[in-house]
Amino acid sequence: MLLSIVFLLALSLFSRNLEVGGQVSAESTPVLTQEIVDISTLENDTVYVGVYVVDIYSFDYITGEYTLDLYVYFAWIDPEIDAIEWYLMNGYPIERGGEGEFLVRENKTGILKREIYRLRANFNTKIEPTNYPFDSVQLPISIELLPTRFGRISFSWLGNETGISPSFKNVGWDDPVFELHTSTSEYPFENEAPRADMIIEQDRNLFGAVTGTVIPPILFCLVSVTCFLFKMYDEASFGLRIGISTSMLITAVLFDISEQNDIPPVSSITIYSALMLAVTAFLVIVMIVTVVGYVEWMRSQDKNYVDKINKIGFILSMIIPVLLFVTLFLLK
C-alpha cells in the first residue's frame, strides 16, 4: 500500500518537473551593466520595460501576499512622450505616495530616454494548492501604462535589464525562474492600456515537502500495521492493538488539522488530501478489523476463524486505501 502511494507521489513530482519550458532561471540573468538593444531597432510607438527583482520578503502561502524589492526600468525613443505614467496591477508601494516618488534616475536628453524606479511593494496572487505538497507558486509582477494622450502605445520587454538577483531567497522554495508576457488590457469607453507581466515561479523544496508532510502519515501507517501481528483472541494483544490503532488515528487527525492551518482554501482535491484520506482509511480499517475480530472471538471462540478475519482485514487494508488514493489522485 505504502509503495503504491509513494510511487504515485513520485510520478506527480516527475510530471511537475517536466513543465518548465520557456522559463528563464535566475542564474541566466544578464548583468545590469549591459547596454540596451541597438537604438536603430527600437520603435516609436513602443515603451520598453525591464524589471530587476532584488529580493522577496514576507511571503504568505495562505493569503498569497508577498513583498518585493525591485527596480523598474522604462525606455523609449518617441519624442512626444515626456514621462511614463504607470500602475502596479497586482500590488502597491509600501511607502506613501505614487510611483513617481520612487524615481531614482532619469535621462531624457538623448534619442533614447530612460526612467529608473526603485521601490518596495506589496503584491498578491491567487494560490491554488492542488499539487500540495509538491506544488509551485507563481508570483506575478504586473505593470500597466495609464491612458495617455499619445495614442496607441505597446509594451516590449528589455531582456538585458530584466532578471532576478542571485541574492533572491524565499525560504522553503527552490531557486526562481521567470516568464515575460505583454498584452493589452481593454476597459470601457474604448480605453486600452498596454500591460507587461513578469511571472516568477518557484517549486516547493522537495526535502521539506517529503520530511514535513509525506513521511509523518507514512510512519503512522507503519506503526499501525504492526497490529496485524498481534492475536485478537488474546486480551493483552487485543488491548495493545486497540491502543496502537486508536493513538495513530488520533495522531493522524491532529496532524491533518495542523497541516490544514498552513494550506490556502482549496476548490478541488489535492495530493495532500488524497494522501490523508487514504491514510485515514487504512487506520480506520485496522481498528474495525481489531474490533470485529475480538467480537467474533468472544462469540465463536474459534481461533482459525479469527485468524482468517485478521488476514482478510490485512489484505483489505492494503487494497482499499490504494484504490481510494488512485481515484482521488485521478480526479484532482
Q: How would you portray this structure in words?
A:
The longest helix has 30 residues. Strands 2, 3, 5, 6, 7, 9 and 10 form a seven-stranded mixed beta sheet that branches. This protein has two domains: 184 residues, Neurotransmitter-gated ion-channel ligand-binding domain (Acetylcholine Binding Protein, Chain: A), CATH 2.70.170.10; 125 residues, Methane Monooxygenase Hydroxylase, Chain G, domain 1, CATH 1.20.58. Strand 2 and strand 3 form a beta hairpin. About 2% of the residues have low confidence. The chain has 332 residues and is an alpha+beta fold. It is built from five helices and twelve strands.
Present the secondary structure layout.
Layout: H1 2-17, E1 24-25, E2 46-60, E3 65-76, E4 86-88, E5 91-93, E6 103-107, E7 113-124, E8 136-145, E9 154-157, E10 163-164, E11 177-187, E12 191-203, H2 206-225, H3 235-260, H4 271-300, H5 303-331
Helix pairs in contact: 1-5, 2-3, 2-4, 3-4, 4-5
Can you tell me the CATH superfamily of the largest domain? Neurotransmitter-gated ion-channel ligand-binding domain
Based on Cα principal axes, name the global outline: rod-shaped
* Separation of the first and last Cα atoms: 20 Å
What's the number of helices? 5
- What proportion strand? 25-35%
CATH topology of the largest domain: Acetylcholine Binding Protein, Chain: A
Structural class: alpha+beta
The low-pLDDT segments are 27-34
Helical residue percent?
25-40%
Most strands sheet: 7 strands, mixed
Supply the number of structural domains.
2
- Strand segment count: 12
Order of helices and strands: HEEEEEEEEEEEEHHHH
Rounded mean pLDDT is 85
Determine Rg (CA atoms, Å): 29 Å
Q: What multimeric state do the chains show?
A: single chain
What is the CATH architecture annotation of the largest domain? Distorted Sandwich
